[in-house]
Specification:
The chain has 4 helices and 9 strands. By secondary structure, it is of the alpha+beta class. The radius of gyration is 14 Å and the shape is globular. The longest helix is centred in the C-terminal third of the chain and has 11 residues, at 116-126. Strands 1-2-3-9-8-5 form a 6-stranded antiparallel β-sheet. Strands 4-6-7 form a 3-stranded antiparallel β-sheet. It has one domain: OB fold (Dihydrolipoamide Acetyltransferase, E2P), CATH 2.40.50.
Length: 127
């Protein structure tokens, strides 16, 4: 399983890539494998204000439907519209497929995210 060093991670198995004050958010390979074939991604609305810890969207796989929790507070600046027609892209390239991005309103919230090393230790405890 690939856990890139240049990303941050959440306990909900999301990856976060920060470019300037914008966070691009996707699913880790760990949770992608656990979910199985993804068949639907409900996207948030552009311009929507989100708060850290609140459910922001839903992902459905052949196994389960799961809510996705926002790891950061801010405003939705982009959604990956390709996933509306091709949600399975997450299965073929979880780390290269962002779901949405957020203009971060509180950069200190990044301190609550895990480094790649911390995330590896976290998932090792789950297995």
């Amino acid at each position: 399983m690939n856990i890139p060093e240049d990303l941050l991670y959440t306990e909900n198995h999301e990856w976060v890539q920060v470019i300037d004050r914008v966070a691009y958010i996707g699913l880790s390979e760990y949770v992608q494998a656990a979910l199985g074939e993804i068949v639907f991604v409900e996207m948030p609305e552009l311009g929507e204000k989100v708060s850290k810890g609140n459910e922001i969207l839903s992902i459905e796989s052949v196994k389960v439907a799961q809510g996705l929790i926002s790891p950061l507070s801010g405003i939705i600046t982009n959604v990956n519209e390709v996933l509306e027609e091709e949600p399975e892209r997450i299965n073929s390239d979880a780390l290269g497929t962002f779901i949405y991005s957020v203009q971060i309103s509180d950069m200190k919230e990044l301190d609550s995210l895990m480094s790649a090393e911390q995330y590896q230790k976290f998932i090792d405890k789950l297995d």
